[in-house]
Design goal:
This protein is an alpha/beta fold. It has 2 domains: 225 residues, Rossmann fold (3-Layer(aba) Sandwich), CATH 3.40.50; 156 residues, 3-Layer(aba) Sandwich (Rossmann fold), CATH 3.40.50. It has 17 helices and 13 strands. The strands form 2 sheets. The protein has a 7-stranded parallel sheet, sandwiched between helices. Strands 10-9-8-11-12-13 form a 6-stranded parallel sheet, with helices on both faces. Helix 7 packs across helix 12 and helix 10 crosses helix 13. The chain is globular, with a radius of gyration of 22 Å. The two termini are 43 Å apart.
């Protein structure tokens, strides 16, 4: 049987060393490659120095244009069996073109996280108001989910939220980070060998930047008072001047910039300090911490959907004083620290090992492929949204193309 063609259309070229989103998309690419599929990756974005060399793992790369009908002819010639849109904005741009040229291709949306939920939480904090998830981004993202044959959701909490909007389980698929199990901890540094706190993140991502400011102004002054001998080390991609100027050696607040390897860097420290103020989805930094035996001091929203009822790999609190007190205890008390480490191993091995997801995922694809017409009829709201009276993104794109001529 000829290899099935799978096309990924990326918002950007993946940067797994910069963000969890980059790691996630590479994991999906590798999932299809391991299945024997022929994988293509296309993006209209420019590459950076940190873009992953997809060619090295056997992926065929393509540069495409935005708002340009050259894509139509190209995708028709390629004729993929599956198209994976990297975030809803990409589905808005290219979904109608794929539907027009390759009507029988399965259209998958990788949501990364629910953008509307993250946006609503950000607005709630910014304006000190209640959470309003009924915003314009919600309408766009839900429309995108409805237009696709399957949406890959990284958090069970987000699946439950989508069901509140009456989105059918038929078009949702829970697929978290896909990890190797933790089978040995011999190479991990011990409690005594580790010291200091670490925070890591991509600072183009607003939740990380806001959390960094919260650490600087609220959390670290209180922690320093209780642990005067301890330092906080800040790592992460795209640490612009606004990030680097937060460094204060007298306060033992050190800003280092990009880490060559997130896991190796986290593994040197005793605790990952990450009281995230808002966000959505699953946190790559928490997976990295658990994979290196590093306990995590988190907020409720940070840990959301990551342990699914299992004991957490550290502490969770939204109350500043409680957070500080429990973090100090986690840092100082080896017994509590070791238990948090054990909890992290359990979480990874029970909830994130890729072996448990591979076969069911491809079985689901086979099932949809065999009954595609029925699958789409059962999601008839999605068919309605594809009707030309509701395709404003299509006509905006065509207008921009004409204007560009």
């Amino acid at each position: 049987m000829a290899a099935r063609k799978v096309l990924f259309i990326g918002l950007v070229w993946p940067e797994p060393t910069s963000s969890a989103a980059g790691t996630r998309i590479i994991q999906l690419v590798q999932l299809f490659l391991a299945n024997g599929d022929e994988v293509h990756f296309a993006s209209a974005a420019s590459k950076s120095d940190f873009s992953f060399e997809l060619k090295t793992i056997g992926v065929i790369e393509h540069e495409i244009k935005l708002n340009n009908s050259s894509f139509d002819e190209w995708v028709a010639t390629l004729s993929p069996s599956i198209v994976v849109f990297d975030r809803f904005m990409i589905e808005e741009q290219y979904g109608w073109r794929v539907q027009q040229e390759c009507p029988n291709a399965l259209r998958f949306l990788d949501t990364e996280d629910l953008h509307f939920l993250r946006h609503a939480r950000q607005q709630s904090i910014k304006h000190s108001t209640g959470l309003d998830i009924y915003n314009d981004i919600t309408k766009r993202e839900l429309a995108s989910i409805l237009r696709c044959d399957l949406s890959l959701i990284i958090s069970q909490v987000e699946i439950d939220l989508l069901k509140q909007f009456n989105i059918s389980n038929q078009i949702l698929y829970y697929l978290p980070f896909l990890e190797e199990p933790i089978t040995s901890t011999k190479h991990w540094k011990t409690f005594e060998e580790r010291k200091d706190f670490i925070f890591i993140g991509n600072y183009l991502h607003e939740p990380n930047w806001q959390t960094l400011q919260y650490l600087k102004t609220s959390v670290w002054p209180l922690l320093r008072r209780k642990l005067p001998e301890v330092s906080l080390h800040i790592y992460g991609a795209y640490a612009t001047e606004k990030v680097t100027q937060l460094q204060n050696t007298r306060e033992k607040f050190f800003v280092h910039g990009r880490a060559e390897s997130a896991r190796e860097t986290i593994a040197q420290h005793r605790v990952l300090l990450a009281p995230l103020l808002f966000g959505a989805g699953a946190k790559g930094k928490f997976i990295d911490a658990m994979q290196t035996g590093t306990p995590i001091a988190s907020s409720i929203v940070g840990a959301e959907g990551m342990a699914n009822g299992l004991d957490w790999a550290g502490i969770i609190s939204d109350d500043l004083q409680t957070f500080v007190d429990e973090t100090v205890e986690l840092y100082r008390n080896e017994k509590i620290w070791k238990q948090a480490q054990e909890n992290g191993i359990t979480i990874i091995n029970k909830l994130y090992t890729k072996q448990q997801f591979e076969v069911p995922f491809f079985n689901r694809i086979t099932q949809i492929t065999a009954n595609l017409q029925l699958h789409r009829q059962q999601n008839f709201f999605g068919e309605i949204l594809k009707h030309n009276t509701l395709q404003s993104t299509k006509y905006l794109s065509l207008w921009i193309e004409e204007k560009n001529k």
